[in-house]
Design brief:
This protein is 44% helix and 10% strand. The longest helix is centred in the middle third of the chain and has 20 residues. The two termini are 26 Å apart. The protein binds 1,4-dihydronicotinamide adenine dinucleotide (NAI).
């Protein structure tokens, strides 16, 4: 489609629905913005108040209604309801108030939305694939209202953010993530599909809750679980081939094996592992440059050695190797502490992913105190000159004052990223980190925090939010598809994700102004997504995953033209 055709398609649309069917369709509904002609043509006269509003007018009124809500949950419910009533208005409102509303549709407030899912449920959105229906997954996928889907986000709700097993309530996460694909990446909302794989729940509270809307059963596990996931992937390949499939909030036990099993079979990635890794790598690369240092000079300490931590470490390690370190040297720069202490080679409980980061026992044996069997974070910080401390442990306040002070006594600009979500699980608050380091720390958090007043200046806090990466990856995939009828790239590679991270780092405001935040402002996300999608697409074409573009300019203009924006096209009825 040419740019002109795209613009035309956006301006005028043939619509078959009429009357209440049209008003009840969130993708098509314009509410009070239906024009006089449209009201006549589509049988809407009398169904709407007489005043005809513009989208701008509607946004003002919707914002007033939003502002009257008195709790985060009510604000979340309001926005979700707006999304299910009038999608264009929902996205336009979000774009106008992105800093204020992003945390309400997504982290941290979406956690409440998941916990209360069965109590606040109103209208269907997305697909529920329950274990008892395991023999008809293809049929369920075909029930999706829109024939073409660019992006699926799927969860089994077992490890939702940092709040554990939410069962079918986990669907709130794919819904929220896909809203961001549309808002920031510009993926058309009608071409997104949230899915929850309802394999039961082990959350006793939910099982006891008479309102719980999921399959009331303990989680299935083992071979039954694996074969269910296999059936799901087979159905996606059959019904929606070439669709980007993002795995989200699976437990550590399943996340990595699922990614390893399917990453070479279809266009897929795990956001908790690869998305987190890319954004953390981007923030770290920026921080290292602001610190006036270089990547090979870094020594990384992680609290938590789960799916997210090993993913972040893998990308940092790849970057270290790119910068000239041997694989062995690169591995020696990582100190990972989990709930059983520092990972080292004598431990027998490590997964293959964790074993990569096990320090040789000989290196640390002198550190053990008599009678002590494990080494904790404080021990590691005491013995290592850590330049970067990354928390992905879900342990609130684990970065204590003595730990942070000891670290910062050894380095000029300590890089400290408490990344656990939601807010109450954060390993430290930015205010404390600035205080304890006398404003020297380079901080990025997992959850949003308000700016910190320190030393007479206001320091905005960067949120290491995956939203910097995944919508842009989706946009790149859409752009790399030669046409709606032809398949595009079939794989998401780590190199594509690392290209995204490097592009993010290049756009760090702190590179130009060391007192600016490490990561770009949320209001710039949409234009940043274009730059990141550009880098991802270039890497895909460079490595032969996708066919090359005529020129960088044509790639960039296709990316820009592919971004959907919330606006009302004019509707015309089908010709008789
Ligand atoms: P996971 O369950 O796979 O790993 C948690 C890790 O923390 C495990 O290694 C566990 O042993 C360790 N841990 C637990 N208690 C500990 C203790 N007392 N001391 C030391 N280590 C302890 O979970 P996953 O997926 O790795 O996520 C971890 C956290 O990271 C969550 O809070 C999640 O919300 C957050 N996260 C943040 C992201 C972001 O900010 N962009 C993205 C993905 C995850």
């Amino acid at each position: 489609m040419s740019l002109n055709e795209i613009a035309q398609a956006h301006l005028v649309r043939t619509v078959r629905l009429r009357g209440m069917d049209l008003l009840n369709n969130p993708a098509l509904n314009k509410g009070t913005a239906f024009s006089r002609d449209e009201r006549e043509s589509f049988g809407l006269q009398g169904l709407l108040p007489p005043v005809i509003e513009s989208l701008d007018d509607q946004c003002i009124r919707a914002y007033q209604a939003f502002s009257l809500k008195t709790s985060d949950l009510e604000r979340h419910i309001y926005l979700r309801q707006l999304q299910d009533t009038n999608e264009v208005l929902f996205y336009r409102l979000l774009l106008d108030h992105i800093e204020e509303m992003l945390p309400v549709v997504y982290t941290p407030v979406v956690a409440l939305g998941c916990q209360e899912f069965s109590h606040i449920y109103r209208r269907p959105r997305g697909l529920f694939i329950s274990y008892p229906l395991r023999y008809s997954i293809s049929a369920l996928l075909r029930n999706h209202p829109n024939p073409e889907v660019d992006v699926i986000v799927v969860t089994d709700g077992e490890r939702v953010l940092g709040i554990g097993d939410q069962g079918v309530g986990g669907l709130g996460i794919p819904i929220g993530k896909l809203s961001l694909y549309s808002l920031i990446g510009g993926i058309h909302p009608g071409r997104t599909l949230p899915i929850v794989l309802d394999v039961g729940t082990n959350n006793e509270e939910l099982l006891r809750d008479p309102e719980y809307l999921g399959w009331r059963h303990a989680r299935i596990t083992g071979a039954e679980y694996d074969s269910f996931i296999d059936s799901f992937v087979a159905a996606v390949k059959e019904v929606l081939p070439s669709t980007l499939l993002q795995w989200e909030d699976f437990s550590g036990v399943h996340a990595r094996p699922i990614l390893n099993r399917y990453r070479d079979q279809l266009l897929t990635f795990n956001d908790d592992i690869q998305g987190t890794a890319a954004v953390a790598l981007g923030a770290t690369l920026a921080a290292v440059r602001v610190a006036g240092s270089s990547l090979p000079e870094q020594e990384f300490v992680f609290l938590g050695a789960g799916a997210a931590s090993t993913g972040v470490a893998d990308y940092l390690r790849a970057a270290l190797v790119t910068e000239g370190l041997s694989e062995l040297e690169a591995r020696s720069r990582f100190w990972m502490v989990d709930r059983d202490g520092l990972l080292h080679s004598s431990r027998t409980d490590l997964t293959p992913e964790q074993r990569v980061y096990a320090q040789p026992s000989s290196r640390i044996s002198p550190w053990f105190r008599p009678g002590g069997e494990t080494l904790g974070l404080a021990d590691v910080i005491h013995h290592v000159r850590a330049t970067a401390l990354i928390g992905l442990s879900t342990v609130a306040s684990a970065f204590t004052e003595p730990i942070v002070r000891e670290m910062s006594a050894k380095v000029d600009r300590p890089i400290i990223f408490p990344l656990s979500n939601p807010t109450e699980h954060s390993e430290a608050s930015p205010a404390d980190l600035y205080r304890w380091t006398h404003g020297r720390a380079l901080v990025a958090t997992g959850s949003p925090f308000p700016p910190v007043e320190y030393g007479g200046r206001t320091i905005p806090v960067s949120q290491c939010n995956n939203v910097y990466i995944f919508p842009a990856v989706g946009l790149a995939v859409v752009v790399l598809r030669p046409s709606a009828a032809t398949a595009g790239p079939q794989r998401i590679t780590d190199a594509m994700m690392i290209a995204a991270a490097r592009a993010l780092a290049e756009h760090s405001p702190a590179l130009g102004d060391p007192s600016a935040p490490l990561l770009p402002a949320l209001k710039d996300l949409r234009s940043l997504a274009v730059e990141i999608a550009f880098a991802v697409a270039q890497e895909a074409t460079r490595s032969g995953i996708a066919p090359a573009f005529e020129s960088s300019a044509s790639l960039r203009s296709k990316i820009l033209a592919s971004q959907w924006s919330p606006a009302y096209p004019a509707y015309i009825p089908p010709s008789p």
